[in-house]
Records
---
Amino acid sequence: MKYLSEYRDPAMARALVTEIRRSATRRWVLMEVCGGQTHTIVKQGLDELLGESIEMVHGPGCPVCVTPLEQIDKALALAARPDVIFTSFGDMLRVPGSDCDLLQIRARGGAVRIVYSPLDALELARKNPDKQVVFFAVGFETTAPANAMAVWRARELGVENFSVLVSHVTVPPAMTALLEAPDNRVQGFLAAGHVCTIMGWTEYEPIAAKYRVPIVVTGFEPLDILEGMLLAVRQLEEGRHEVENQYVRAVRRDGNQPAQDLVTRVFELVDRNWRGIGPIPRSGLGIREEFAEFDAERRFSLDQIRTAEPTMCRAGDVLRGVLKPFDCPAFGALCTPEHPLGAPMVSSEGACAAYYNYGRFRAGSAV
Amino acid sequence: MCLGIPGRIVEVRQSEGLPMGVVDFGGVRREVCLSYVADEIKVGDYAIVHVGFAISKVDEAEAKRTFDVLREMSQLDELEWLKDLAP
């Protein structure tokens, strides 16, 4: 077993599709809250194979897409400083800020470097003691332990020229916000498997119970996603609303305790603005006072940020699952992956980019 | 963003007090932080790796069980298809 190719078998996928269609007596609306799953669903056309049995709505599962504009603008301001080497995961570089993006800052001479791991950014700081190295710490719960470790190690190793610009978000408060919305249509969720490798699934139990929605912790390969859908449909058909784990090979109920411990030592829950959605109480992570010296927002004065979002972009409605990307008037014409107006058109995990790249220009139009 | 890839641990060591190791992803090898799985992992195990950190050990028995259930379902389905085709 390599734990990858086995979960892409076409014959097994066909069997799961047949079983889902057989199980569903009506059309159910499910939401995935993970950009990686969105990408697989659209790329493989899994939702279209299911015909009338399931409508998949794509939730705010792409941290790149929901990073608030003011944090992007702060990143741009930092990256433009001559004393700063600005480091980031690659997918943040083309996210549009109010005026430009990180790639344009680099073209104008700013030191912007892509790193694979936050520990690489820390290493860069040790090798460049005469520069300030700032790392753009974005992501869901999956990425928080890695970013927490970079801060922890910076203090441990005394790396004074390292800091992080934090824009961490957490999944359960966003799910709750969607369920509370009066126009919510979602009847069941696929929960993101890798978020749950860290956090487990105990946080989802009260949500499933209160809103009477099935929540299935689901992996990323096509067979994982189809099995997650099947488990959710069976629950809906039987009137159950439980948290179920499809991704058994990687997720335990209590998650990864050492990772949770370090995240809790470095970060604390804060209110966070989600791009396109708005503020959600206690839905983000910020740096604890104890580690304030490594907070880029406190190290550099960044208060004078004024943001401007393009009015045509309907990213917020797409992220909440109210609109499909092709319902946006800018989609595919004014807004393309080459010239994105909104973040969901930038990241390969954004719903707009996935629809554009796989030819979904109207309902059922995959080519 | 939360992309995690399963890889096989081929080397485990300490680097300035931090558990690190080398992970093989189908022939491509990378240096990975093992701090969050240090208590449960050994050379030869598979782990899910995200942004240079092993975040979860792959449970081989559970992986096989899931796979067997899916395969059984597809074999049953093949039988159904054959039945449909039968005159």
---
Amino acid sequence: MLITISQLIIGSVDLIAAFLLMFGLWRMASPVTAPSGILVAGVGMLAAVVASFLYVFTVDAAAKPHLPLNIGLAAAALIIGAGVAWWSGRKVAITAMPQAVALFNGMGGGAAGAIAAVELFGSQTHGVGPLVVTLLGALIGSISLSGSVIAWAKLDALLKKPLHVPGLQIFNGVVLLACLMVGAYIVFAAVGGAAPVLTMPHLIEIFFGIALLYGILMTLPIGGADMPVVISVYNAFTGLAVGLEGFVLQNPALMIAGMLVGAAGLLLTLLMAKAMNRSVAKILFASFGPGKKRKQGAIKGSLKPVQASDAGIFMRYAKSVIIVPGYGLAVSQGQGKLYDFVKLLQAAGVSVKFAIHPVAGRMPGQMDVLLAEAGVPYDLIMQLADVNEEFKDADVALVIGANDVVNPEARTDKTSPIYGMPILNADQAKKCYVVKRGDGKGYAGIVNPLFYADNTFMVYGDAAAVCVAMTEAVRGLGAPAAAA
Amino acid sequence: MSFQISIGGFIAVYIFMVTAFAGWVIIGRVPAILHTPLMSGSNFVHGIVVVGGIFTLLNASTPLEQAIGFVAVLLGAGNVAGGFAVTQRMLAMFQTSGHPTKHPKHAKRAAPAAVKSISPKKA
């Protein structure tokens, strides 16, 4: 009786939780409803976690004597894990958000892998189908765990350079194949009853070892600028692993939530790859080769440096300004200072908009979050498709810390590595100011003809410092007027 | 009457298919401006794996199973709590120019975070 009631309650709560998680994501369709969306999802999650303790009434005879200890362990793990993660999630800087997401994602993959490990070590899965699904979930979850940790280390600049070893991709393929073969052997040994060369626990340990190793090897050669795609892929992986383990545990809530994230991660990955003009396979399995040297056509024109104060004052008397922020702005922590300058311009009657390229930042949409943190209202933040036609009517395009995403070569030069990539049409504005620390090339390693164009002027310096200088120059103008 | 859930192979494929389709549609509606919170929000959603972890740990009958089950719950709980904290924080920052830009609630939260984030190792 108690078992039936527990199952009824758990089943109902999980059903509601699955709905609330989907509904929460549904509400993410607009910045207005999104904050309530995550709260809705949070309520569903909390209910599911609380209800899961009713499983104590359904445990089988073998686990009964250990129940008090297991309940204690579960409570302790919940409190420690949630406490530490909550605390670090609260205090992490917004610029470090991609690292945090990578790390929390790896934890989910690890949890899915650990569940699979318990199932395998306890020989609790019977039949070829469930066993294969368990192993698949274990493989994907493990790759997600170790891969996410490497991605975190790369984003946190603990690992600086992508690993370039000739033949690494082939070696990785062999490692993955070995892992699949060990998995197949486990299935064969468990179902066919053939005497294994190694004992079953050893086989399982080897399986997890190779899977974790593959996650590391797969992520090491990928460069830091491709990390958004990698995080998205591992997000989808973890979702998939959770969904598969949900099937093994016969828990539809896990299946639904996991698969939902799997589909979400896949869609985001494809969107990003499209914005970068590269295929997902190329990003994951072929690093941006340094070997391919290409002769770039001679560039007409010259670099024309100007003072930050002159640029600031010019914009003060412009009618419309479109700002193109890039990762360089985030690196110099200049978002807040930039918005101070924008507020001055707006007070002087200048129309200001922000134009965001889909791959600006280290995560899709990271620039939007950084601007939001600085207090920029989201209705000033425009996406590529919505704003690109407005450049030709704008008096000034202000490019701050961005390079490849405004390179007009992507439109014209078929031999360029970024040819075909959608770019922001900053070159079509009447005048273009580019704030840069030096004459360095962008991530793609090519010279940007925009910088040499007749109507482009270079403002050299750290983005934050330039914003301060421009603000002061405009304030200096305003002071006599205010005194009069 | 039993409420034991039993999902066969084919039913599972049906569930996966419908959910994947729903996920594709739901996520396709999200504007690019919210892609980072979306990623972290979907990261939070797969944190439901902690429920599976609790189930596994409660059913553990050997020290090895208990140890791995403990790790599963620990990591799953971290996924849930961290994912929620990060997502909620980011979404709270989005505001329109319709509101006064120095909303007291946001100003209090955003200002110290901005100052703090200048100091750590990135600088």
